[in-house]
Amino acid sequence: MSRKIIRSSKILTFDEARPVAEALLIEDGVIREVGSFTVLSETVGPDVEIMDTGSAVVMPGLIDTHPHVMHFGALRGGLVDLSDAVDHADIVQRIRARAADTPAGEWIICTPVGEAHYFIRRSWRDLAERRLPDRHTLDLATAEHPVLIQAWAPRTPNIVAFNSAGLRAVGLSDFIPDQVCDVEIDKDEAGRLTGILRGPVNNYYTYDPFWGQILLKLPPLDAAHAVPGVLDEMARFSANGVTTLYEGHAMEPIHLQMYQHLRSAGLLTMRVQATFDVESVIFYPFEPLSLTEFDERLKSLAPQASDSTDDLLRVAGMTISPGGPCFAGHFAMHETYTDPFGRPTKGNRFVSLEKEEAFVRFCAQNGIRANICIGSYREHDDFLEIAERVVTEHDFRDQNWILQHAITISPDHVRRYKALGFQVTTSVGFAWGKGAMYDERIGRHVWRDMVPLRRLLDAGLDVSGGSDWGPKSPWEQIALAQTHEIAGTDLRNDGPDQVITRQESLAMWTTSAAKILGWNDIGSIRPGNHADLIFVDRDPTACGVEELKQTRVHRTLLAGNIVHDDGVL
Questions:
Q1: C-alpha to C-alpha distance for 233 and 255, rounded to whole angstroms
Q2: In the sheet that 108-110 helps form, which strands lie side by side, from edge to edge?
């Protein structure tokens, strides 16, 4: 039997029965007792390991309910990391180093420059040259390999850069027009391609026919790189204090299979609860299923959609994602707004109303947890009309629902979701990263309904937090729930419907998140719970909001085992 006592200057338990303690006893990865160090040490005797955290504060591991660890990790795996590149010489050196270990003719693909995924606080504009390198500069790194500096969704318009070999590999020559579909193809004064393309050139959430054909000429995802990428992404989350993930969006069977592979190989370093997305719409090419195919997919996924037997990897429900982001012009609204290229649009939907109703009925009839990813007014209106009709017709009063995203949501929508028994996962990072864009393209009137945490909580809804595209630090997200800052501006959307308290914000990442997931033995420090713990350098319940953003996690424990340690303790 493995036993250890953790001793701290302060243990924040997030358990109302004992909010603060100084020690806890762990046996075989489970918290057995919480109390005073003197009592616990006398009770267990000498044969126990003492882990003294000094001045570090101990608290439960955080739960991120919209992380995309699998997606972002797999997409990043094997790429040349340019996120923190400082100038063109730095970029050339990094690509040249990769080229030295890459067979001639194989692609070298790079991350974008800057902070994913909004590229507001840092982007290619912050390079010393204030621009991406053109093909001539990239050719200095290698002429034997096609090279691409990617753009990542959701920001649209965006920008990519090819070297000369990359242009040839995707079939671009000087004879191509300056613009095809919505893609601008940059040329120099002599009419020669520079290697720079602008527009809807993202790696996902893009449906531009021309750019789509280029995407199809790029190498497919390599599993040999995807697995290390996911392991690196999990390590980044562990370093931020996250011990549990809810992968409830865009999870196709292949993504669940990768998590299952990591679990069977003993490589899963955090708890994961996931759902199956019935019809994923993110990656090009997206070809909608027929209604018959959609029904068959529901039936095929149903037997796999509920499994809580594993303490590390659970499947709990199915997901439908009717719409897409406003950045790319897909936000479904009743009134026209401006798309990324200045044209009027009302957005669109990726999943038909017939499929949406088939999904709701199927989940209700089969007792499957339904996860709905909705962000816009028209999506709420359409879905609520369907859900209320199905519930009324069949009296499905115990249906278990999760509303994910809720980027804009009116008081009437909140009331109706509460009546249906919904719980909510959202990200304040949506408002942080897209608030200025909503103001510009739709109008500031939407700010009153933008991630209204206070409104949701006051209505009695359980609400949890996630990182998604916004700041990947949960501590920044927790602070944003108080400040509601708009990135790239000096503005805040800190109205009466948005701002919540520090304790409520922390609960979104601990106790409330555990409740929404139905995972009763995580999210707090109490006897019987898993020993998923983090040791942080300050008291997040009491420090200033700016200090909170800088919280450092010294150590992260999963089931009592160290999965992150910065060497300070």
A1: 14
A2: 108-110, 147-149, 158-162, 193-199, 183-187, 179-180
Closest to 340 measured CA to CA, from 325, 358, 319, 323: 325
Alpha helices in 170-326 (DSSP H): 209-215, 223-239, 253-264, 291-301
Token readout for 316 is: 């709990």
* Residue 440: strand, helix, or coil: helix
CB neighbourhood size of 509 (10 A): 30
Mean pLDDT for the stretch of residues 122-150 = 98
Report d(CA 488, CA 120) in Å as an integer.
6
- Give me the sign of the Cα torsion angle 299, 303, 304, 305: positive
pLDDT tens per residue, range 230-277: 999 999 999 999 999 999 999 999 999 999 999 999 999 999 999 999
At 6, give phi and psi (nearest 5°): -100, 125
Task: Judge contact between 247 and 68, C-beta under 8 A.
Answer: yes
What are 509's two structure tokens?
């990442």
Least confident piece of the model among 154-158, 320-324, 514-518, 521-525: 320-324
Instruction: Return phi, psi of residue 59, to 5°.
Output: -150, 170
Alpha carbons 153 and 72: distance in angstroms, whole number: 11
Q: How confident is the model at residue 45 (pLDDT cuts 50, 70, 90)?
A: confident
Q: H helices of 80-127, where?
A: 88-99
Rounded Cα distance between 284 and 350, Å, is 13
Give the tokens for residue 163.
Answer: 């070297």
Q: Which of 386, 508, 384 is nearest to 451 (CA)?
A: 508
Q: What are the distances in angstroms from CA 104 to CA 79, 99, 147?
A: 16, 8, 12
Q: Is 201 exposed, middle or buried (0-12, 13-18, 19+ CB in 10 A)?
A: buried
Taking alpha carbons only, the member of 527, 498, 501, 523 closest to residue 513 is 523
Angle ∠(47,27,558) on CA atoms, nearest 5: 125
* Phi, psi of 289, rounded to the nearest 5 degrees: -70, 150
Q: Which amino acid does the sequence have at 13?
A: T
Phi and psi angles of residue 234, each rounded to the nearest 5 degrees, phi first: -60, -40
Contacts of 65 (CB under 8 A, 6+ apart): 245, 246, 248, 425, 464, 465, 466, 513, 516, 517
Q: How far apart are CA 118 and CA 354, in angstroms?
A: 33
| Length of the chain, in residues | 569
Angle subtended at Cα 287 by Cα 437 and Cα 376, rounded to the nearest 5 degrees: 30
Measure the CA angle with vertex 251, ends 264 and 289; round to 5°.
130
**DSSP code at position 447:** G
Q: Residue 315: beta bridge partners? A: 274, 307
Residue 171's nearest CA partner among 138, 213, 201 is 213
pTM, to two decimals: 0.97
Query: What is the distance between the alpha carbons of residues 157 and 313, in angstroms, rounded to a whole number?
Result: 37
